[in-house]
């Protein structure tokens, strides 16, 4: 899903079946939740230490919580036995005492200053803005510290390490701070025998531990504040390994911000939450888990940049001679053979995923098969049934938000269609302890959109905010974006008559799609990162062959974002999606999980990782490889999402052909009397979505540089410029598909048949689509894509790369020069000056965009602008001015075209006469 985009570290899991867990669910009155009082949090009052109700605010707070009284308990603490009189004791990791609506945590002396795992799960969300119920949030190592009459909950600083007891370790403690995330009064005197003390749970936990106020403000630009008085502790439970608390936190604002009288296009208005009755008041639920750390830490495995895994990173101050003190550990589950001597053995503790009982029955087989697919990779390294899938019984009493079981959860969202695969690891070793995959009805419903035409779309403001305790993972957008690919595939296949609604073929299509998404997300929970280069390992002929794809798939890794493998018109269909694991997936699992003798581990891991440079089937490139290098699209055209084959440029041409095929078919489609126009509008815009996903990656070939993650001795250099021939081919695709005079031609009667859904109009306004127009703006849609392409190919960064590529090109190898780029663009965009043809409104828009960038280049100087770029643009502008003067007198041009030429000539003349404005002057 980044790691793009971003996945968050979180916690989650279900409590053990039949464990000695007592769900000490004490009632938390939710009357206020049913009729919340919008507005600021009322001033809280300090509760009495003995009979404080569950709902009052904490006696002291962590950052982000509202102000609360910190007045000390008057007099000496009451005897332990007096406070817990008539209370129910539940023994566990932390013993809990419950009486009516009160819960106390018993903290023993040996539990003070002893680290444990703190993990949070969002158990109640908004169904929008990436604030979803069931989402694993973040985790860290925490411990209790008693300071006078206060019990502090501190988050340990695991970023810096040194040998225990060394002077450097003492220096670390004085150099780097830890964080306070909760605090509560010590209510009792020590127990006469155990010396344990009592801390009230609500005073410790009813704080904004998750930083949700910032998450809300980031998503909606509204300064929500925690209202302690109307927040509550809902449930508490404990067993041997975990103690968990469910809290309901109320956030409110006194009023919503007014919309500006005069909208500013540069400052978009973000709408308030749409899925609550009153946007001034909302509740978020969290599961706060205190979990026991493994008694014996797992032996860590050092990560390698040539194989893609999430990592646990720390700064090691053990040796001051090391040039780089950063240590990166592979995030992985602890897998150990029951029989270490056997070639094939079951693991001591398998990786078990529990399917949430809310997952619809029709999708459970696809989810289960997606999970179990990974056993193929583990069998290759000697593990039998390493990954298992179980279904949570309908009457199960364990909580899937606890850190006991990994889960696959089902939730609902009003926009977007994400599936997410985060995990929780021991910061000391990288051992994955818990993982939770979330899937929504959105991406399954969207894949059946030809049946239900009103599937929701992701809104621009649906971004939320990633982890709050220091997340290193990223949100995975695979399912969220793949549903758009599914939509387009279904539009094409339905238009061709290849798949009919409610047919067995349609059911198979959805099954394969859901299985692929789940397999991808399970890969993340196993520690694996994206691999966006794996889509380049097969030829177009191979992925068009049904026998080949059934055996080998269509890409090299299920961790890629592959488009649907749609056959060309008249071609037999092969596998639409990746049917199984790819060669890279087997290799990566081998690197992270293969049992290796510690004495030989370093050498054997080096040998495994080095195979990636020798075997083209193991090609790897991840999130940052796809966008680093400057400019909007990045510099490496071989690391992209939504591409296929070893000739991506050829595939992008095919995407354009498929878009035009779809447009041709729907323009000829005859709707039945009474049928809605929604299908036409949706399919028409889907074609533009595909053009966008095809043409923007094409721009990376211009000034492109391929980068690999090899080390010395591999036979490849880290950086290689894209051959000049491929850069010219990329420009031709852009010219033919986007810039040419005849790129877009639609029947007027068809464009007049694309209204929006009138029933959804006001819902769209509520969600912030304030500019929603009843007609599709074809010129506006095309112009946006043209702007994005020009922003890339005419950027200073691309100019610099084109010039610097000449320095690293092989001797005697022809290079693609900056002058050729500028000449090519100008000739294509202003072709009417040579042909004498009339300039259409859409072409005039494109020419103005090009001219605006030229004028900026020759009148403004910045530190990032190469001098050659400015001088070449000036020379080309002079030539363009001469061509405009020559074209003004040509007969047959409309008044609009002549006015456009005159204005363009004036713009160039003014720019050429202007003095250069230097940045910072």
Automatic annotation (TrEMBL):
Pro residues bias locations: 37-47
Region span, Disordered: 31-80
Domain called DUF5118: residue spans: 77-118
SUPFAM superfamilies, per the entry: Metalloproteases ('zincins'), catalytic domain
Domain of life: Bacteria
Keyword vocabulary terms for this entry: Signal
Occurrences of domain EcxA zinc-binding (ranges): 504-834
UniProt key word Signal: yes
Signal peptide: 1-25
Record field: compositional bias (Low complexity): 61-73
Transmembrane segments: none
Domain DUF5117: residue ranges: 140-338
GO MF, one annotated term: metallopeptidase activity
Protein name: Metallopeptidase
Organism for this UniProt entry: Usitatibacter rugosus
């Amino acid at each position: 899903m980044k790691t793009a985009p971003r996945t968050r570290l979180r916690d989650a899991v279900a409590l053990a079946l039949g464990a000695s867990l007592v769900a000490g669910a004490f009632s938390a009155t939710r009357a206020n939740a049913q009729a919340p009082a919008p507005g600021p949090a009322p001033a809280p009052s300090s509760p009495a230490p003995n009979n404080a109700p569950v709902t009052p605010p904490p006696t002291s707070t962590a950052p982000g919580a509202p102000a609360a009284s910190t007045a000390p308990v008057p007099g000496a603490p009451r005897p332990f036995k007096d406070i817990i009189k008539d209370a129910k004791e539940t023994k566990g990791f932390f013993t809990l005492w419950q009486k009516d609506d009160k819960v106390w945590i018993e903290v023993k002396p040996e539990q003070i200053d002893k680290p444990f795992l703190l993990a949070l799960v969002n158990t109640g969300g908004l169904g929008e803005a990436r604030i979803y119920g069931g989402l694993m949030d973040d985790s860290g190592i925490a411990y209790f510290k008693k300071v006078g009459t206060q019990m502090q909950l501190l988050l340990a600083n695991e970023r810096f390490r040194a040998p225990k007891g060394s002077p450097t370790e003492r220096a670390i403690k004085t150099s780097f701070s830890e964080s306070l995330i909760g605090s509560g009064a010590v209510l009792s005197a020590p127990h006469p025998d155990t010396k344990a003390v009592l801390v009230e749970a609500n005073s410790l936990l009813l704080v904004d531990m998750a930083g949700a106020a910032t998450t809300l403000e980031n998503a909606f630009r509204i300064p929500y504040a925690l209202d302690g008085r109307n927040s509550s502790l809902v449930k508490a439970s404990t067993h041997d390994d975990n103690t968990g608390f469910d809290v309901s936190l109320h956030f409110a604002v006194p009023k919503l911000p007014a919309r500006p009288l005069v909208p500013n296009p540069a400052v978009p208005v973000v709408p308030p939450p749409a899925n609550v009755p009153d946007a001034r008041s909302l509740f978020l639920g969290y599961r706060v888990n205190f979990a026991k750390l493994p008694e014996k830490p797992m032996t860590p495995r050092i990560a390698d940049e040539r194989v893609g895994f999430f990592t646990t990173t720390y700064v090691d101050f053990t040796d001051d001679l090391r040039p780089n003190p950063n240590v990166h550990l592979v995030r992985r589950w602890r897998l150990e053979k029951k029989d270490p001597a056997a070639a094939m053995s079951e693991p001591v503790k398998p990786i078990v995923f529990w399917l949430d009982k809310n997952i619809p029955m029709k999708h459970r087989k696809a989810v289960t098969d997606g999970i179990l697919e990974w056993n193929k990779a583990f069998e290759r390294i000697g593990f039998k049934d390493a990954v298992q899938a179980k279904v949570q019984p309908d009457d199960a009493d364990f909580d899937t938000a606890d850190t006991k079981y990994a889960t696959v959860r089902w939730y609902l969202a009003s926009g977007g269609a994400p599936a997410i695969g985060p995990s929780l690891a021991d910061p000391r070793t990288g051992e994955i302890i818990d993982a939770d995959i979330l899937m929504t009805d959105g991406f399954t419903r969207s894949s059946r959109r030809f049946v239900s035409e009103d599937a929701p779309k992701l809104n621009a403001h649906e971004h939320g905010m990633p982890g709050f305790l220091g997340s290193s993972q990223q949100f995975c957008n695979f399912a969220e974006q793949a549903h758009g690919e599914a939509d387009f595939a279904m539009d094409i296949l339905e238009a061709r008559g290849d798949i009919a609604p409610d047919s067995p073929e349609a059911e198979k299509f959805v099954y394969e799609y859901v299985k692929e998404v789940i397999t991808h997300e399970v890969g993340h929970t196993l520690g694996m990162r994206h691999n966006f280069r794996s889509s380049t390992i097969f030829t177009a002929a191979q992925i068009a062959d049904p026998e080949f794809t059934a055996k080998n798939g269509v890409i090299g890794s299920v961790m890629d974002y592959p488009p649907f493998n749609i056959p060309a018109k008249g071609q037999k269909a092969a596998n639409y999606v990746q049917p199984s694991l790819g060669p890279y997936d087997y290799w990566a699992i081998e690197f992270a999980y293969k049992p290796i003798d510690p004495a030989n581990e370093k050498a054997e891991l080096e040998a495994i990782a080095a195979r990636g440079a020798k075997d083209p089937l193991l090609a790897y490139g991840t999130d940052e490889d796809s966008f680093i290098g400057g400019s909007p699209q990045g510099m490496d055209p071989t690391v992209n999402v939504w591409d296929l084959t070893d000739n991506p440029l050829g595939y992008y041409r095919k995407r354009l052909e498929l878009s035009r095929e779809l447009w041709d078919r729907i323009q000829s489609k005859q709707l039945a009397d009474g049928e809605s126009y929604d299908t036409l509008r949706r399919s028409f815009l889907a074609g533009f979505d595909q053009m966008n996903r095809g043409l923007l990656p094409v721009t990376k070939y211009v000034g492109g540089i391929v980068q690999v993650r090899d080390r010395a001795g591999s036979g490849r250099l880290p950086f290689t410029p894209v051959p000049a021939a491929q850069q010219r081919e990329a420009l031709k695709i852009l010219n033919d598909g986007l810039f040419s005079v005849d790129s877009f031609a639609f029947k007027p009667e068809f464009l007049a048949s694309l209204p929006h859904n009138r029933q959804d109009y006001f819902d769209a306004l509520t969600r912030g689509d304030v500019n929603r127009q009843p007609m599709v703006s074809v010129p506006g849609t095309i112009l946006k894509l043209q702007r994005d392409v020009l922003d890339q190919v005419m950027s200073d960064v691309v100019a610099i790369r084109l010039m610097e590529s000449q320095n690293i090109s092989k001797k005697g190898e022809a290079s693609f020069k900056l002058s050729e780029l500028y000449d090519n663009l100008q000739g294509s965009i202003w072709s009417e000056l040579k042909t004498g043809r009339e300039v259409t409104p859409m072409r005039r828009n494109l020419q103005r965009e090009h001219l605006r960038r030229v004028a900026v280049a020759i009148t403004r100087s910045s530190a990032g602008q190469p001098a050659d770029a400015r001088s070449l643009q000036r020379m080309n502008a002079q030539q363009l001015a001469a061509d405009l003067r020559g074209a003004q007198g040509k007969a047959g041009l409309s008044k609009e075209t002549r006015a456009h030429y005159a204005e363009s000539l004036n713009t160039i003349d003014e720019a050429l006469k202007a003095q250069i404005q230097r940045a910072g002057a």
